[in-house]
Amino acid sequence: MKYFIISRTDELSNELMATAREYLQDFGLEWSEEAPDVVLSIGGDGTFLHAFHKYRDQLDTVAFVGIHTGHLGFYADWKPIEIEKLVLSIAKKEYEVIEYPLLEVSIHYLHKAEPSVYLALNESTVKSPDVTLVMDVFLNEGHFERFRGDGLCMSTPSGSTAYNKALGGAIIHPSLHAMQLTEMASINNRVFRTVGSPLVLPAHHRCALRPVKAPDFMVTVDHLQLLHKDVKSIEYRVAEENVRFARFRAFPFWRRVHDSFIDSEV
Predict the structure, then answer these.
(1) Residue 74 β-bridge partners
(2) Hey, which residues does 235 pair with through a beta bridge?
(3) Which residues are within 8 A (CB) of 171 and not within 5 positions of it... i.e. 6 or more apart?
(4) What is the SS3 assignment for 180?
(5) Which of 171, 179, 182, 176 is nearest to 255 (CA)?
């Protein structure tokens, strides 16, 4: 079996990477950056996002596992003191592969035939370089609303505990194939109205954002932030691809939510 390790590059993370690599080599596993079967992310959820995007073209063959060297993360769930236990489980292949849905982001342009297509593990946001974002929101080609406000966020179930939660969105179990559209400070008065609530859309639905005025937008895909010019539409759907996690033990999602946001000592 082939493996690769991505470190946050701080001292502790690098020490754990060296230890894990030494142990895995002793068990006869092969180091491979080009075509690993398992990718270990040592750091935090940010490190995990980098690992995911590095292998976004190999998602059907790569399984990810995270070791946190800071605060407990939703993706990096192994502790540094468990490194020997984890390495032994990898060497013995004592794991199952769990798949969770992703978000496909397609950006279409006014003067370009080919769209830019991305995959998001957490979310994609859209903001205007100007003060107010004005977008027509279409659901399954039907006009839903004209949004005015700071921006819009479309998140995956896995990403529902990240920026989406900070915006007041719902927490969705990552096994559900859905996506969630959440507003950023919408303008609601006698003239302008939005639904004012997050929308949870099933996998067979599509969402398109179409500019009303200026065609230039700041679009994020997880940690990536890009300025897109001459935008005709930004289209979202639940991706056909999934992210694969190497799961060595039960993953108590709601316990993780409790420990992260309520009380880790109870």
Answers:
(1) none
(2) 106, 208
(3) 160, 161, 165, 257
(4) strand
(5) 171
At 148, which amino acid appears?
R
Active-site residue, from 10, 26, 37, 45: 45
Give exposure, 167-176, as e/b (b: 16+ Cβ within 10 Å).
bebeebebeb
pTM for the model: 0.94
Residue 86 DSSP SS3: helix
Secondary structure letter of residue 216 according to DSSP: -
CA distance linking residue 32 with residue 140, whole number of Å: 42
Relative to beta strand 96-109, strand 116-120 is antiparallel
With beta carbons less than 8 A apart as the criterion, state whether 230 and 77 touch: no
Task: Identify the bridge partners of residue 30 per DSSP, sorted by sequence position.
Answer: 2
Structural contact between residues 155 and 166, judged by C-beta atoms closer than 8 angstroms: no
204 CB burial (10 A radius; 0-12, 13-18, 19+): exposed
Residues 67, 21: Cα–Cα separation, whole Å: 14
Q: What is the chain's length? A: 266
Tens of pLDDT along 155-213? 999 999 999 999 999 999 999 999 999 999 999 998 899 999 999 999 999 999 999 98
- Residue 114 neighbours by CB under 8 Å, 6+ apart: none
Q: Is 31 helix (H, G, I), strand (E, B) or coil?
A: strand
Catalytic status, residue 37: no
Q: At residue 27, what is the residue type? A: F
CA 253 to chain centre: 16
Q: What is the pLDDT of residues 49-86, one digit of tens each?
A: 999 999 999 999 999 999 999 776 789 889 999 999 99
**What is the rounded (10 degree) CA torsion for 58, 59, 61, 63?**
120
